[in-house]
């Protein structure tokens, strides 16, 4: 290089982007991109709220999170809705079984004595064979739906439900 021209190192100090070869320029561009991503992530994490939900089983921790998701407008995808459907079916079956059992233990008579058969059918529900991965499937629930409806309209079950503070009825 001519003596009157500044050296490459002094030019790169004054003009950092001018004297870079293509590899160095790509590395610098990539570095700036990573810096931007880190800045965005840092901003996101600062706004992120973390909550530790403690509570006994069936106290509503998952329900609270689902409600927060609904309140803040996040929609559910199809598979999540299908999973919730099976959970609801399972909860209905379990709840009716608890009510039938509680009605008996609280010595509450049936409103319609013919519902004794429906009560026996619900208590005979085999959770080991009728439940897949802890959930009641739609076809199984539909088989029990008329029984559930008949029991729910029975005044004995309604009276047991009114006394639900005396036993554990999960929701």
TrEMBL record:
<comment type="similarity">
    <text>Belongs to the G-alpha family. G(12) subfamily.</text>
</comment>
<dbReference type="GO" id="GO:0005834">
    <property type="term" value="C:heterotrimeric G-protein complex"/>
</dbReference>
<feature type="binding site">
    <location>
        <begin position="58"/>
        <end position="63"/>
    </location>
    <ligand>
        <name>GTP</name>
    </ligand>
</feature>
<dbReference type="InterPro" id="IPR027417">
    <property type="entry name" value="P-loop_NTPase"/>
</dbReference>
<dbReference type="GO" id="GO:0003924">
    <property type="term" value="F:GTPase activity"/>
</dbReference>
<protein>
    <recommendedName>
        <fullName>Guanine nucleotide-binding protein subunit alpha-13</fullName>
    </recommendedName>
</protein>
<feature type="binding site">
    <location>
        <position position="62"/>
    </location>
    <ligand>
        <name>Mg(2+)</name>
    </ligand>
</feature>
<dbReference type="GO" id="GO:0046872">
    <property type="term" value="F:metal ion binding"/>
</dbReference>
<dbReference type="InterPro" id="IPR011025">
    <property type="entry name" value="GproteinA_insert"/>
</dbReference>
<keyword id="KW-0460">Magnesium</keyword>
<dbReference type="GO" id="GO:0031752">
    <property type="term" value="F:D5 dopamine receptor binding"/>
</dbReference>
<keyword id="KW-0547">Nucleotide-binding</keyword>
<dbReference type="GO" id="GO:0007189">
    <property type="term" value="P:adenylate cyclase-activating G protein-coupled receptor signaling pathway"/>
</dbReference>
<dbReference type="GO" id="GO:0031683">
    <property type="term" value="F:G-protein beta/gamma-subunit complex binding"/>
</dbReference>
<dbReference type="InterPro" id="IPR000469">
    <property type="entry name" value="Gprotein_alpha_12/13"/>
</dbReference>
<dbReference type="GO" id="GO:0005525">
    <property type="term" value="F:GTP binding"/>
</dbReference>
<keyword id="KW-0342">GTP-binding</keyword>
<keyword id="KW-0807">Transducer</keyword>
<dbReference type="GO" id="GO:0005737">
    <property type="term" value="C:cytoplasm"/>
</dbReference>
<dbReference type="Pfam" id="PF00503">
    <property type="entry name" value="G-alpha"/>
</dbReference>
<keyword id="KW-0479">Metal-binding</keyword>
<dbReference type="GO" id="GO:0007266">
    <property type="term" value="P:Rho protein signal transduction"/>
</dbReference>
<dbReference type="InterPro" id="IPR001019">
    <property type="entry name" value="Gprotein_alpha_su"/>
</dbReference>
<dbReference type="GO" id="GO:0031526">
    <property type="term" value="C:brush border membrane"/>
</dbReference>
